């Protein structure tokens, strides 16, 4: 027997369609049995929504959600579809999941990682800006910083002041071991992600701590600057220092960031990280990926719904950008009208600052280049006509999903966390007696005056393990290869030590 009306064959067909992107097959199966959207593979490893999100099949993700799939469903590891989409950088899928009001603050069972951690580890900056969209108000950036500036002026404890902000709490949420998204972005050398996270009130002084029996290769009590020193990216170290990071912070091993850089062979960082350094730290402007109008565009898209985003009546004005849909939003300031889909796409992808007068974080208007802070809904725009097929909840539930029909009840909004981490055997974690520096090669960064290149695949990493290979050959190889899929990075050793066979089973099923 299967776990969807006894039709395991149909459920496996839907899983295959979601993995392969077969939209026609998925539509046919869901038309026959909409409850297949809640099907999960044997053992509850992954649902069709997890497969579609991990593979980036946005149309199938939309189809599953419209047919009653739970947007916050977890797999065997406690990971949601949002985490899978952020892991692989499918920002369009993240956008769709946000429109269906997914929970961005959930953490997995194994390491306490949120979707923000998954996006930061792999440097998916568009996913980061989307995940934090509901926390960044559509108002001038100076307003968001007023409370912090007043705290500095009054001499109030800045940490206590920031703890009152929902944005600061979410961005600084730590996974197991105290590792934040800023730690992982700095470790892997993603300068753009580090800059955006710092603009979003990430704590530059956050420190890690010991966790159970797992071994931290850098050491407990390490700041993002320690992790940046291990990663070897010069610009990451510079922006952290420019934002207030201290060169004199000692971790629990008694190491300065300079000591970490020396241990990992990052010799080009020594002039910057030296305690008595006289190096000039450049000033960095706000990140071009800071998008203030994203919240307003996302809320309007949620209100209008997916169906109204594609309709076009005879008396409606056509969007001047796509020439396909009716205008439904207007930009505050210049007043130019767009369709909500183009406005949402513009807020999600633009990384060009406005050429005309506009506050930091504004998005340039595609018609006049005026800085847009927020969008407003036009009076004649249609509202969402349906409740996203909520009537499917009245259908006969699957025998193994009988409790999912009332999963949206307010009484069950509190998250059950009793299975988190405590049920994982300590035998699956790295013991304390492990060598702090095992024989695992981390790609050496040789970029003294530019952003760190993308880390290379495993086969390139194996070629670079020879100690007799000159550095010029490694640099040329970094410039020639640009793959991003299946890359290896510094963080693979850290998170790999905290994972267990559960996550390997879920990932192998998706990547089969």
Automatic annotation (TrEMBL):
Residues 457-468, 476-487 have a biased composition (Basic and acidic residues). The keyword DNA-binding does not apply. Pfam families: Ank_2 (PF12796), RING_XB3-XBAT31 (PF24921). Its EC number is 2.3.2.27. ANK repeats lie at residues 44-76, 77-109, 111-132, 177-209, 220-246. One of its GO terms (biological process) is protein ubiquitination. Residues 457-488 are annotated as: Disordered. Signal peptide: none annotated. Pathway: Protein modification; protein ubiquitination. Residues 319-369 form the RING-type domain. One of its GO terms (molecular function) is ubiquitin protein ligase activity. Keywords: ANK repeat, Metal-binding, Repeat, Transferase, Ubl conjugation pathway, Zinc, Zinc-finger. It is an enzyme of class 2 (transferase). This is RING-type E3 ubiquitin transferase. It comes from Ziziphus jujuba. It catalyses: S-ubiquitinyl-[E2 ubiquitin-conjugating enzyme]-L-cysteine + [acceptor protein]-L-lysine = [E2 ubiquitin-conjugating enzyme]-L-cysteine + N(6)-ubiquitinyl-[acceptor protein]-L-lysine. SMART domains: ANK.
